[in-house]
Specification:
Blueprint: H1 2-10, H2 15-28, H3 37-46, H4 50-55, H5 71-83, H6 92-113, H7 115-127, H8 129-135, H9 141-159, H10 165-182, H11 190-200, H12 205-232, H13 249-262, H14 314-317, H15 322-333, H16 339-343, H17 348-352, H18 355-376, H19 379-382, H20 391-410, H21 418-434, H22 440-462, H23 469-491, H24 495-498, H25 529-542, E1 549-553, H26 556-564, E2 569-571, H27 584-592, E3 596-600, H28 619-628, E4 630-631, E5 643-645
Parallel strand pairs: 1-2, 1-3
Antiparallel strand pairs: 3-5, 4-5
Helix pairs in contact: 2-6, 2-7, 3-5, 3-26, 6-7, 6-8, 6-9, 6-20, 7-20, 7-23, 8-23, 9-10, 9-11, 10-12, 11-18, 15-20, 18-20, 21-22, 21-23, 22-23
């Protein structure tokens, strides 16, 4: 009997370590499998000089920056400097940040809502597909998610402190640094955080308003500190600001990472104008070069609809649990909107200042704010991993709401029927929409667990035995049934779900998975790993690489593989290939100075493949290279028109 008593006391204490071990296994087992080479190449370049490190230069020569602020990449550079640049080292910080989010969430939920709610919340974060994918690769979203949980922790502590130090810490260390990680994404829940402090904070309204004003001032200073330094640096003394047309850091902040990312409230952006000639510009037709085809404008993008958040593929990112989370949010809101408030509204502020009611308002408000912003942002459809920012508030709301429903169920209070009903509807919704995505065994296991658990809950409610051991076990089984499919998705192929493997650039032929080309035949699949290796081997064998860059390319997807392999490369058009960094004369002058000797025209820039360069500032540059540089593609075993060498003075 004593052994059983000791087990009952000790097992609950093992809950958090077990969840952390599960989260670590899911994340660390995937490190290095799918890194974003754009950021990996940037880390390799940043380690070349302090100039590159501060300005987060994409290339070793400091020509163009990445399109993100520096803090996340600074963190990635630390283990890379010690362990070497690899997909594993540049993703290490993100896995640690994911574990930090799990631990901080437990520390926030446990004191107010109990151990069961805290374990359920952390378990949901540990197995959520979007969180696992982002925490196991070098995207800045995982660091932003951790900093937002840290911000929430500081704000909650500020409501119980007499001085505004915790609130200032939230603005400076957490949210301000978050802005320097992924800009506006880090500020999405800030209105909710500040509103919570105003409603639940200590002292008078005047002091609370003064504290919020001071926190906003600190937030602005910390957020814009790096931006101001970059803006004050003359353009000739820093790299070109990537993903902008005017080389302005303010364009990157306001337009590219602001309105274009989160501007869903103003509707979809208009499609780019089509040239009046109806033809794509390119080189004149010649042997093996088909003429450019007519251009037809693409369909006008549809206005984002919030209903898409509940269906595939967006619902897959959150394990199909978003609908159930909104039910849980309704149950959680009963803590700060009870029946008595409708009769005596003046009591509401006093109620919100209680930890249970106030923090439920914080979590539900955070989820609602993120749901509106990302649900209406058109970029969420092309970058579904943005939904990883909903994981923590959704998990907290799920745990708080289901715990509240369980309390009503076990005591046979009003809405005691809500727990089995909502669990059945939410689980059936999850199974229906993820039945084609999740493994068959996971769908079957989830369905069997759900049907059995809900059946027992209904019978227990009928017999008024809702607090019996079998009923409590059924509640645990029902919660576990909801996490089976997310766990299976997290262990499966995350690429199609949340972009763990970025899709190939349009026009890239996939590299062959097996076999070798015939002797003397050009290597197929321009842009593939073997193609990059062939270019690297040829350039190294010639011994005449440039003294700054070995090869040049149009966009970063073509230059990044060379930089990761230790071969200096430059992307003359930045991330998308459309940045006006060079003119034909400036690139030719750089080449004649010996800084650049080779240029690769992979994917859509290779005219011999029938894909001439489309509209953009790089067209004249590529035409100059084709006319004046030497085509050495066949010598390197590559398709014609893919590798050029500068002829020299």
């Amino acid at each position: 009997m004593r052994l059983i008593t000791d087990l009952r006391r000790g097992l609950p204490r093992l809950g958090l370590p077990a969840v952390l071990l599960l989260a670590a296994w899911l994340r660390f087992s995937r490190l290095g499998q799918s890194d974003n080479q754009y950021y990996t190449a940037a880390v390799a370049s940043m380690l070349q000089s302090w100039h590159n490190f501060f300005f987060v230069s994409f290339d070793p020569g400091g020509v163009v920056t990445v399109d993100k602020p520096p803090f996340g990449l600074w963190l990635d550079a630390l283990p890379a400097a010690l362990l070497g640049v690899s997909g594993w080292s540049v993703s290490l910080v993100h896995a640690v940040a994911g574990l930090g989010s799990v631990g901080l969430l437990y520390m926030l939920v446990r004191p107010v809502y109990g151990r069961a709610a805290a374990l359920l919340a952390t378990l949901a974060v540990a197995v959520m597909p979007a969180a696992v994918a982002m925490d196991s690769r070098n995207e800045p979203d995982s660091v932003v998610a951790f900093l937002l949980v840290l911000t929430a922790f500081c704000v909650v502590r500020a409501t119980g402190a007499r001085s505004p130090s915790w609130l200032l810490l939230a603005g400076a260390v957490a949210a301000g640094i978050g802005f320097n990680t992924k800009m506006w994404v880090a500020l999405v829940p800030m209105p909710v955080f500040l509103a919570y402090y105003l409603l639940a904070g200590p002292r008078t309204w005047r002091l609370r308003l003064a504290h919020v004003a001071a926190a906003l001032a600190v937030l602005a200073v910390v957020s814009l500190s790096w931006v101001w330094v970059v803006a004050a640096t003359p353009p000739e003394r820093r790299p070109y600001i990537g993903s902008t047309r005017d080389n302005s850091i303010w364009t990157l902040v306001v337009e590219y990472n602001g309105l274009q990312r989160l501007g869903g409230f103003i509707g979809p952006r208009k499609p780019a104008p089509v040239p009046s000639t109806g033809q794509l510009p390119g080189p004149p037709p010649g042997p093996g070069i088909p003429p450019a085809g007519p251009v037809t404008p693409g369909p006008t993008p549809a206005k984002p609809d919030l209903a898409e958040m509940f269906t595939s593929p967006l619902a897959d990112q959150l394990g199909g649990l978003l609908l159930l989370a909104w039910f849980a949010g309704a149950m959680a809101s009963l803590r700060w909107m009870p029946r008595g408030v409708f009769r005596h509204p003046q009591r509401w502020l006093g109620l919100v200042r209680s930890p249970a009611a106030g923090q439920s308002l914080l979590w539900v408000g955070w989820l609602a704010c993120a749901f509106m912003v990302y649900g209406l942002a058109a970029s969420t459809r092309t970058h579904p991993y943005y939904l990883s920012q909903l994981v923590v508030p959704m998990a907290a709301v799920l745990a708080i709401g289901l715990t509240a429903a369980w309390q009503r169920y076990r005591h046979l209070a009003r809405l005691s029927w809500a727990l089995p009903l909502a669990t059945a509807i939410g689980g059936a919704f999850q199974i229906y929409y993820l039945r084609e995505t999740a493994p068959v065994w996971a769908v079957n296991a989830s369905a069997i667990l759900l049907i059995g658990a809900v059946g027992v809950l209904v019978l227990a409610l009928w017999h008024r035995a809702t607090n019996a051991p079998l009923a409590r076990a059924s509640v645990a089984a029902a919660c576990l049934s909801l996490l089976v499919i997310p766990l299976a998705l997290s262990r499966g192929a995350l690429g199609p779900l949340v972009g763990a493997r970025p899709p190939p650039v349009q026009g890239v032929a996939p590299a062959p998975s097996a076999g070798s080309p015939a002797p003397g035949a050009p290597l197929p699949g321009p842009g593939g790993p073997r193609w990059v290796e062939a270019v690297a081997s040829f350039v190294s064998a010639q011994g005449d690489a440039g003294n700054v860059f070995a090869v040049g390319a149009v966009r970063v997807s073509e230059a990044a593989p060379f930089i990761v392999r230790g071969i200096p490369a430059v992307a003359i058009g930045g991330f998308s290939g459309s940045d006006p960094i060079f003119t034909p004369d400036s690139l030719e002058a750089m080449a004649r100075q010996g800084k650049l000797r080779y240029f690769v025209m992979a994917t859509s820039t290779a005219p011999a493949l029938g894909r001439p360069q489309g509209p953009g500032p790089q067209g004249p540059i590529l035409e100059r290279i084709r006319r004046t540089w030497q085509d050495v593609s066949l010598q390197a075993g590559l398709p014609p028109g893919t590798l050029y060498r500068q002829r020299g003075p």
